[in-house]
Amino acid sequence: MKKHGKKYLEAAKLVDRDKAYAPREAIALLKKMAYSKFNETVELHLKMGVDVKQADQIVRGVTLLPHGTGKQVRIAVFAEGEAERIAREAGADVVGGDDLIKEIEGGRLDFDITVAIPQMMAKVGRLGKILGTRGLMPSPKAGTIVPPDQLPRLIKELRMGRVEFRTDKTGNIHTVIGKIQFTEDQLYENMTAMLDAIVRAKPAAAKGQYIKKIVLTSTMTPGIRIDVNEALSARPSA
């Protein structure tokens, strides 16, 4: 069993394990508990009431967080010709065609997100074993395969805090909503934006209670259970 340090145990004393907190109350408590010197990542973990063994019940989508994720992302774009020029001018960190594919096959992975134009996917497909296992493969469902004229919009959104979410093999969703140094209002608005997107992504085949449990946490802090009904009725600040 993992042993926790003194600071973690002191922080854990602040959390009532038998209580489901209101969203704003949970965020305030999380910020109070944070003890690390670095800017911890804030996460939401949701237990979903879906059967992920059924393809039509997998929850997946993307949303644009109002205040971003607080993380600087490196974007790689698979493109050639005019599309390559567009991607470079739009601010992509890594751009290329056959040359980039060969570099990735050789071990290059210095990026966080990949984007591709449709014409490149026949070639990019052979990188499935490398990129797919790391969640880096361009995908229509994630909206990361777009025509050249849409590259500037997509790259801008990725910089601003475009986040993909999906259920894992156990039917849970783990997603980022910001950094601990964000204000309470910023974290609240990012949280409500994410929950709204997850609700809108509800599969038609899903039955019963859609979201069973919500936990708020950060890199080094204990989890805080959030009242599901209050979270789903919450609205961003005006």
SSE arrangement, N to C: HHEEEHEHEHHHEEHEEH
Number of helices: 9
**How confident overall, as mean pLDDT?**
92
Kindly name the structural category. Answer: alpha/beta
Determine the strand fraction and express it as a percent band: 15-25%
Evaluate the radius of gyration. Answer: 20 Å
Distance between the termini: 45 Å
What is the fold named in CATH at topology level of the largest domain? Ribulose 1,5 Bisphosphate Carboxylase/Oxygenase
CATH class of the largest domain: Alpha Beta
Give the strand order of the largest sheet, numbering strands 1, 2, ... along the chain. 7-1-8-9
Q: What's the architecture of the largest domain in CATH terms?
A: 2-Layer Sandwich
Q: Which consecutive residue ranges, at least 5 long each, have pLDDT under 50?
A: none
Please bin the fraction of helical residues.
25-40%
Instruction: Tell me the number of strands.
Output: 9
Count the domains: 2
Output the keywords:
238 residues; alpha/beta; Ribulose 1,5 Bisphosphate Carboxylase/Oxygenase; Rossmann fold; 2 domains; four-stranded antiparallel beta sheet; three-stranded parallel beta sheet; 32% helix; globular
Describe what you observe in this structure.
With 238 residues, this protein is of the alpha/beta class. It folds into two domains: 15-69 and 161-233, 2-Layer Sandwich (Ribulose 1,5 Bisphosphate Carboxylase/Oxygenase); 75-159, Ribosomal protein L1/L10, domain II (Rossmann fold, 3-Layer(aba) Sandwich), CATH 3.40.50. The protein is built from nine helices and nine strands. The protein has helices at residues 6-12, 23-33, 82-89, 98-105, 121-124, 128-131, 151-160, 184-200, 228-233, and strands at 41-48, 60-64, 75-78, 94-96, 113-116, 162-166, 172-179, 211-218, 224-226. A hairpin with a 5-residue loop joins strand 8 and strand 9 (224-226). The longest helix has 17 residues, at 184-200.
